[in-house]
Amino acid sequence: MVRTRLRDQILRGELPPGTRLRDRVLSAEHEVSRNSVREALRLLVSDGLVTLTVNSGAAVRVLTTEDVADIYAARRLLEFGGIRASSRASDAELAEIDVAADTGIRQRAQKRWQQTGTASLEFHAAVVALAGSERVNHFFAALAAQLRLAFAIMPDEAEFQALWVDRDRVIADLLLAGRRDAAEAELMAYLADSEAAIVDAVRGAAIARP
């Protein structure tokens, strides 16, 4: 499916923010009709990964500081909701939290930075999933995909990704111990620091952009 292939290329950083997406070129590359490419691009617009303008056509989305603020406002609502719902979480749901936190630490030890970022996002998705809503989970997945656009412009992705997995582990341990207030306080600080780092990167990329 063209949408999936393009989405994966964007999330892996193979199509960096600002890259023009021309339907004729993509049609040839993926050996599909231009109509199929256009439909895929429309769906990627709805995912928040592509922008479409009358004069310039389609391009991989370039996040603004306003986008980042909006993403993090949504993250706070969803993730704090998951923490508050953790009192009724099943053992299996809590086990997913534990496994996701450990996965991030293992990926960092192997210096697999993209996978480290993926594991961290999966940890936070597991926190959101404690709320028990598939619609909420789907919405968070879209936010996580948009965060990948920010990861792609980090001047040093290794340095950035290495920061978070220990803090994920702290949040996980607090949740597993039933210390929801402490977990929420830790998450609040975590999201504030993460948002600030991404805003700095977005501003730096905007200055460097011709």
Automatic annotation (TrEMBL):
The keyword DNA-binding applies. It holds the Pfam family GntR. This is DNA-binding transcriptional regulator, GntR family. It comes from Brevibacterium casei CIP 102111. SMART domains: FCD, HTH_GNTR. Keywords: DNA-binding, Transcription, Transcription regulation. Transmembrane segments: none annotated. InterPro entries: GntR_C, TF_FadR/GntR_C, Tscrpt_reg_HTH_GntR, WH-like_DNA-bd_sf, WH_DNA-bd_sf. Coiled coil: none annotated. Residues 1-63 form the HTH gntR-type domain. GO terms for molecular function: DNA binding; DNA-binding transcription factor activity. Gene3D superfamilies: GntR ligand-binding domain-like, Winged helix-like DNA-binding domain superfamily/Winged helix DNA-binding domain. SUPFAM superfamilies: GntR ligand-binding domain-like, Winged helix' DNA-binding domain. The keyword Disulfide bond does not apply. It comes from the Bacteria.
